[in-house]
Amino acid sequence: MNPTRFAAAFGFGLVVATSPLAHSDHPPMLNVFPGDLRWANFPILPKDIQLATVYGDPSKPGPYIFRARMPAGTKLWSHRHPDERLVTVLQGTYRSAVGEAYDVAAATEYPEGSFYVTGPNAPHYSYAVTDVIVQEQGIGPTGMEYVHAEDDPRKR
After folding, report:
1. Tens of pLDDT, residues 76-96
2. What is the pTM of this model?
3. Going by DSSP bridges, is the β-strand pair 108-110/50-55 parallel, antiparallel, or unpaired?
């Protein structure tokens, strides 16, 4: 596994490992309330972005759901994931586009309640116009790899 992808998957796993939702032997109905979420930062992401796993384990095979929250003005540089991502904007206004070059003016603006899908390995980037919470889901194992190594926050 690519070291960057491993680090991202390992980081997601840490969120899951501290969550009561990490195991698959849950009751017939699994409930997750906002207070159940455990938000955390990860070195592979800009410092203002926090993640919380809602369901599953993104580092392992199978479905997963996580939320990302970030303040207005946060940029996430062009990157890829090995899996398809289904993204719902739960709060705020978010801009995102497919491409290797970061161009926020060319990105589509997604208001609260919007949904989009990013294909596997598609380079894409985003920008938080306002304070944002997005929910992403996919089929693991997943990871993250920056298109341009210099955009990786761990190298700054």
Report:
1. 999 999 999 999 999 999 999
2. 0.84
3. unpaired
For residue 110, with 0-12 CB atoms within 10 Å meaning exposed, 13-18 middle and 19 or more buried, which class applies? buried
Q: HEC string of the chain? A: CCHHHHHHHHHHHHHHHCCCCCCCCCCCCCCCCHHHCCCECCCCCCCCCEEEEEECCCCCCEEEEEEEEECCCCEEEEEECCCCEEEEEEECCEEEEECCCCCHHHCEEECCCCEEEECCCCCEEEEECCCEEEEEEEEECCCCEECCHHHCHHHC
Place of tokens 């849950």: 26
